[in-house]
Amino acid sequence: MKKVALATAFAFAATSAFAGNIEEPILEPEIVVVEEETASSGGSLLVPILFLIVAAAAAS
To answer: What pLDDT digit, counting tens, does each position of 20-48 carry?
Structure first.
């Protein structure tokens, strides 16, 4: 029984001895995505105008 307790004590001592590291951690660079908004309002009117043209063509 003493051998089992001694082996357990050495196992805990060995794992705690190698747990730390003196090197700096390697961190991944943070990626920042910036979305740019357009100032033109012509793009927002294009789809409804095309829909009206197609609906008028289908109705006639």
So the answer is: 667 777 888 888 888 877 666 556 788 88
